[in-house]
UniProtKB/TrEMBL annotation, chain A:
CDD domains: MoeA (cd00887)
Catalytic reaction list: adenylyl-molybdopterin + molybdate = Mo-molybdopterin + AMP + H(+)
Major enzyme class: transferase
SUPFAM superfamilies on file: MoeA C-terminal domain-like, MoeA N-terminal region -like, Molybdenum cofactor biosynthesis proteins
Keyword presence, Ribosomal protein: no
Protein name as it appears in the record: Molybdopterin molybdenumtransferase
One GO process term, biological-process aspect: Mo-molybdopterin cofactor biosynthetic process
Highest taxon above the source species: Bacteria
Organism of this sequence: Solemya velesiana gill symbiont
Role description: Catalyzes the insertion of molybdate into adenylated molybdopterin with the concomitant release of AMP.
Classification via SMART domains: MoCF_biosynth
Automatic annotation (TrEMBL), chain B:
A single BP term in Gene Ontology: Mo-molybdopterin cofactor biosynthetic process
Parts of the chain that traverse the membrane: none
Family recorded in the similarity comment: Belongs to the MoaD family.
Swiss-Prot/TrEMBL keywords: Nucleotide-binding
Stated name of the protein: Molybdopterin synthase sulfur carrier subunit
Originating species: Solemya velesiana gill symbiont
GO CC, any one term: molybdopterin adenylyltransferase complex
Any one GO MF annotation of this record: nucleotide binding
Length: 414, 83
């Protein structure tokens, strides 16, 4: 059988996705260069050095509830009556609790010395200057201990983490005002092809708009890369070599779409090979398959297919994890899939794994369902704009409506 | 010493993920390939086969003429077919 995982006699074996990813990730090196930025400028950057707490959080034992701080040694069963000797609002620091008394206390206020529990006000009854405690608490009840959240000098954010708003909040909460982050990854983009025209310009005969460079730039911007566009390069071998060399000289990564497939009339492939190394991979996915990877004067080069949808999918599945690792990230390089039922039949599976443009949405019953785009043609960008993710349809597997498959939401891919 | 890493299918075929080796006398990656091939058995199948393996030195893809120096990390990946 051809699906045994061994080499097939019927033609070149396609590279499994997992193998291609492993290779790519092992060739990705985090950029060198760290900068220290104020917290407010760190969103989306990747942390290079750990964030350690400057403080203990919470800084003191404090009340988790509004109620009365007491000492459980003073409890004499249900209905114990104690005089209220002090009142401690949040922001105040109370006096030591006098034996045989209770302290009125509010959420967040420090628990006074000698108190060992807080009784919530719902089980208390105020009676003049006294409080009647209907149910005595256990020792330690409703007290948030000092350092329960974070001890001083404890690491609260690990290097390799992409800084999200919650990390900025956490760093601020532990008193850290600036972070050491990796410098932004610089990616040079490259377009060639006499038939391409920038949007906004009139189209001549046989010309099409250059959407791929815009898609790529959008994808890279969304990942927080610094994009250097080299613009259109004249379709000659010398001009291509010169442009590639210029790209490698000023960027951490050179990317292009199209021009590296077999049989294409293009100077890109020989130019990369002249300046460095280039490998063409055929990966067992659909849409996708070809991916070019190499190095130009020591700088990694990733060539994605020229087809707009294939470019997008290939970027999400391969270029993105590679870029994340180059940016310094160490976890979450590959997307975490959801699982949901499909609302369509899949009677003719391919031997390649299909990443179908799809929408995950709730059906009439409020159950999440995956719908696929009506056309499988990989040239249709409107299908991507319609989708909110990619449904993963396994190779060689017939699927029926209602079967569960993996779904990669764009929120995990972009 | 150099560190040699085997990836994906190679790791399974060779039942080895990584090893440390003495780099003395190794001129380039081709020299290392010959050394590995001469272990015979599966090693000969992998490194002496018709299909070349992919090679990287310190995370950069290279060809067999790339030099190996003490402290380098050399990675071998399954051959890429088609294209």
């Amino acid at each position: 059988m051809s699906d045994c995982g061994c080499s097939s006699i019927s033609g070149p074996k396609l590279k499994p996705l997992e193998e291609a990813l492993e290779l790519l990730l092992n060739l990705a090196k985090a950029v060198e260069g760290v900068e220290t930025l104020p917290l407010s400028e760190c969103l989306g950057r990747v942390l290079a050095e750990p964030v350690n707490s400057q403080v203990t959080v919470p800084p003191w034992d404090n009340s988790a509830m509004d109620g009365y701080a007491i000492n459980t040694a003073d409890m004499k069963g249900d209905g114990t009556r104690l005089p209220v000797s002090q009142r401690i609002p949040a922001g105040a620091s109370g006096d030591p609790l006098e034996p045989g008394t209770a302290a009125r206390i509010f959420t967040g206020a420090p628990v006074p010395p000698n108190a060992d529990a807080v009784v919530i006000q719902e089980v208390c009854e105020a009676d003049g200057d006294d409080v009647i405690i209907k149910q005595p608490p256990e020792a330690g009840a409703n007290i948030r201990r000092a350092g329960e959240d974070t001890e001083k000098d404890q690491q609260v954010i690990a290097p390799g983490t992409r800084i999200e708003p919650q990390h900025i909040g956490l760093a601020a909460a532990v008193g850290v005002g600036e972070l050491a982050v990796y410098r932004r990854l610089k990616v040079a983009l490259f377009s060639s092809g006499d038939e391409l025209v920038d949007p906004g310009q009139p189209l001549g005969p046989g010309q099409i708009y250059n959407s791929n460079e815009y898609t790529l730039k959008g994808l890279l911007d969304a990942l927080g890369c610094e994009v250097v566009s080299l613009g259109m390069v004249e379709d000659t071998f010398d001009a291509t070599c010169e442009a590639l060399s210029r790209a490698a000289g000023q960027a951490d990564l050179v990317m292009t779409s199209g021009g590296v497939s077999v049989g294409e009339e293009d100077y890109l492939k020989p130019a990369v090979e002249k300046l460095g190394t280039l490998d063409m991979w055929k990966i067992a996915i659909r849409p996708g398959k070809p991916l070019a990877f190499g190095h130009i004067e020591g700088v990694p080069f990733v060539g994605t297919p020229g087809n707009p949808v294939t470019l997008f999918v290939t970027f999400c599945l391969f270029a993105r994890p590679f870029i994340l690792k180059m940016q310094g990230m160490t976890e979450g390089l590959t997307p975490t899939p959801l699982r949901a039922a499909i609302d369509f039949d899949w009677p003719k599976p391919d031997k390649r794994r299909e990443f179908a443009r799809a929408r995950l949405q709730l059906d009439d019953q409020g159950v999440p369902r995956i719908s696929s785009y009506r056309s499988r043609s990989s040239g249709v960008l409107s299908s991507l704009a319609w989708s909110n993710g990619l449904a993963v349809l396994p190779e060689n597997q017939v699927l029926n409506k209602g079967d569960q498959v993996e779904f990669l939401p764009f929120s995990e891919l972009l | 010493m150099i560190k040699v890493l085997y990836f994906a299918r190679l790791r399974e075929q060779l039942e080895t993920a990584s090893e440390e080796m003495d780099a003395a006398g190794l001129e380039n990656v081709n020299g290392l390939v010959t050394l590995l091939k001469d272990r015979g058995g599966t090693w000969d199948d992998v490194f002496g086969g018709a299909q070349p393996v992919l090679m990287a030195v310190n995370q950069e893809m290279v060809d067999g003429n790339a030099a190996i120096n003490d402290g380098d990390e050399v990675g071998f990946f399954p051959p890429v077919t088609g294209g």
